[in-house]
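Q: What does the predicted 3D structure of Outer membrane protein with beta-barrel domain look like?
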Amino acid sequence: MKKIFAIFLLSLSLNSQAQFGTNLFSKDPIINLENWDKQRVHWGYFLGFNAYDFKFDYKQPGKEIQVKGTTGFNVGLIGNLRLHEYIDLRFEPGLYYTQRDLLFPGFESESDALRQVKSTYIHFPLLLKFSSMRTGNIRPFLVGGVSTSLNLGSNSKSKEDNLNDRFRMKQWTNNYELGFGVDLYLEYFKFSPSIRGIFGLDDELIRDNDPNSPWTSNVGSMKTRGVFVNFTFQ
């Protein structure tokens, strides 16, 4: 999937190279999609990558849990409502695939120490987009808001825990998000690369059944952190 996505982006880049050079960055560009932003409502979709992490807080100081993140994949839809010339309200539901490997201290066996946390999130962000004045075919923007995520791989209903090699998380979590990007107005559509950080507000860890569990007993809270790189087409 990542290879297909990379080939798709490369093809888009090659096909649009002349347009980027002449229409986006030239001194006197041809104005594309001049009335696009005057629409009250418009739709789009996005593809992208993510890098999820966890932020751990501990009850007692000691050796910390190591988190190794991997690069995941995002895909979703966009609904945009124009509130003002420079402000838009956006709803961007999407599907996010990711994996985080947790290495717990104090174990001699790697099978006991390592937990692979595979997550498939259905992500529901509600965002405000603050755009600058358009210059030619370029318009930078800031974006921020709140989101709710449903983790389909949480294992929240399982009665087994880390003693049975089962890492459990809460199914729902709330977050806030901040990011920036740029709208590039091409001849037939608007292309918007952006980068956004996500910060979990809730403790997502479900503790083991044993209150003295070597995996979870010293964890005060476990909250999601992450970075999204999205490529939007509208």
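A (community wiki): The structure tokens above were generated from the sequence. The chain has one domain: 47-233. The chain is about 10% helix and 55% strand.
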